[in-house]
Amino acid sequence: MKTVGILGGMGPLATSDLFNKIVTLTDAKDDNDHIHIILNNYPIIPDRTNYILGNGENPIKYMIEAALKLQVMGSDVIIMPCNTAHYFYEELTKYLTIPFINMIEETAKEIKKTDPETKKICLLSTQGTYKAKVYDNVFENYGLEILRPEEAVQNCVTDIIYSIKKGDTSLENIDKSILTSYLDSIKGKNIILGCTELPVAFDIMGIKEGCIDPTKILAKSAIRFAGKNTIED
């Protein structure tokens, strides 16, 4: 069985969510039947969105350091629970000699597999992911068009993301009605939770219908790479 390395800390709750999903989705009969995981929770990595928007330090050297540690420690593959950080994917993988599963690519593959007729997908994400076209640049290769919400909705999503990042899981100080009204208006359309804090937030809010969770998709891809089946296989 292969060892999975998680390049985490972007942010810690999202990293924990990915780890939890790998464990709970693995088809295992006891402790010894689970996957060997090396988790590098490295929260000092500078904010990816701030850099993309021109307001912060380039995080790439920290990401390379974290990834190389995982490789040296014996990881056979690396996964990264941060959508925006995939903007740096090409640069990051130049320094590695082991595979690095691309969460955005895996999400596109899963969408085309489960619903081949899909042409347009709604995306909720950080402003950095939108500006860098992290999803657009991959999804266009699969004939998928990304739809984005209006500014008021995006501002609400941003507030939710950064509340989860700082550990505020109550979300009590956020007016979520803007987001819920938007979700009601697009019922019947698939929505990508394109920031790894969003699956955590949507679980808290009890919203599941029509949601595509890239964290879960990545977890299942990692399980299969490691040589195990998922409970859904």
Shape: globular
Q: Please give the domain count.
A: 2
Question: What top-tier CATH class of the largest domain fits best?
Answer: Alpha Beta
Query: Hey, roughly how much beta strand do the residues contain?
Result: 5-15%
Which structural class best describes the helix and strand composition? alpha/beta
- Summed up, the helix count is 11
Textual characterization of the structure:
The protein is α/β, with parallel strands linked by helices and about 230 residues long. It folds into two domains: about 5-100 and about 215-225, Rossmann fold (3-Layer(aba) Sandwich), CATH 3.40.50; about 105-215, Rossmann fold, CATH 3.40.50.1860. About 45% of the residues lie in helices and about 10% in strands. The chain contains eleven helices and seven strands. It has helices at about 10-25, 50, 60-70, 90-95, 105-115, 125-130, 135-140, 150-165, 175-185, 200-205, 215-225, and strands spanning about 5-10, 35-40, 75-80, 120-125, 145, 190-195, 210. The strands form two sheets. Strands 5-4-6-7 form a four-stranded parallel sheet. Strands 2-1-3 form a three-stranded parallel sheet, with helices on both faces. The longest helix is centred in the last third of the chain and has 15 residues, at about 150-165. The chain starts with a strand and ends in an 8-residue tail after the last helix.
